[in-house]
Design brief:
single chain, about 280 residues, mainly alpha, about 80% helix
Length: about 280
């Protein structure tokens, strides 16, 4: 995949979803409603009900793993195997869905953790170049840290966020196509996926992943604005928007990875398996 292919694949995925909104609605189905209801309930819960909030958070995480798995399996198998049978009220709890959802969530969380150190290095370099200094003395108090943060320009934090996001998405973009094997009850072929997405250091698959995730921007903006202004209305609105865009983004990501797997990984894995059997 090169940059032109990344752009074309992303555009083709958008057109595929727009061409059949009925399928999009069927495939999102009941999991989208459940996840949206849990998100709204978690935001509107009573502040003094700590146990209830913890339970809602746990249920939200479990539902997120399940819904990620369901949507990814449905769209991947639709593209790879031509399966188009899921209905709106279907509630599948097969192990395949949990496995895919668990792999996706673990992959994103591990990538986020791994991006902290490189992002810290970039922040330090930026601070040095611009004449600012980051606090390195562990004895500094909260007041010193707050003063240091207020002295940094806004573009510094924006650049930092962008670096963290890119460093988090890069390994996800390169390992994600391996999901194409998992949805067909195969192994998570990390090595094959990493090798297949190695052109130009994996930048084209990263660009494609960013393009198909642009629908998340409005929800993220509302969420950050709501947190900054402590507005419950904006947080609820962000959750409503997210309940619409999340299934769409998951669908487009699954289609992108299934396409890469079907073209650059699957045929070679089949050839290797056939040779081993012989």
């Amino acid at each position: 995949m090169n940059f032109r292919d990344a752009w074309r694949e992303s555009l083709a995925i958008y057109l595929l979803l727009l061409s059949d909104p009925g399928r999009v609605l069927r495939f999102a189905g009941a999991p989208a409603l459940i996840l949206a209801a849990l998100g709204i309930a978690q935001m509107t819960r009573s502040q003094d009900d700590g146990s209830g909030g913890s339970l809602l958070l746990l249920l939200s995480v479990i539902c997120m793993i399940w819904s990620l798995g369901v949507w990814t399996v449905r769209w991947s198998r639709f593209l790879l195997l031509g399966e188009d049978g899921p209905q709106f009220w279907d509630m599948p709890f097969e192990g395949r869905n949990w496995r895919v959802g668990g792999i996706l969530l673990s992959m994103m969380m591990l990538s986020a953790v791994a991006s902290i150190l490189p992002a810290t290095v970039v922040m330090t370099l930026l601070a040095s170049v611009t004449g600012h200094r980051l606090a390195t003395n562990p004895s500094q108090g909260p007041a010193d840290a707050a003063a240091m943060a207020s002295a940094m320009p806004d573009w510094f934090f924006l650049t930092t966020y962008i670096v963290i996001i890119l460093m988090t998405l890069w390994p996800v973009a390169r390992l994600g196509p391996a999901i194409g094997s998992v949805v067909q009850d195969g192994k998570f072929v990390m090595g094959a996926s990493w090798k297949a997405t190695g052109h130009l250091g994996g930048l084209p698959p990263l660009l494609a992943l960013i393009l198909v995730n642009l629908l998340q921007v409005p929800a993220v903006f509302l969420w950050l604005t709501g947190l900054q202004s402590n507005s419950l209305v904006l947080l609820i609105l962000a959750n409503v928007v997210l309940s619409i865009t999340h299934p769409l983004v998951t669908a487009m990501t699954a289609l992108l990875w299934a396409r890469i797997y079907g073209v650059a990984i699957g045929p070679y894995q089949s050839a290797i398996t056939a040779r081993d059997e012989e």
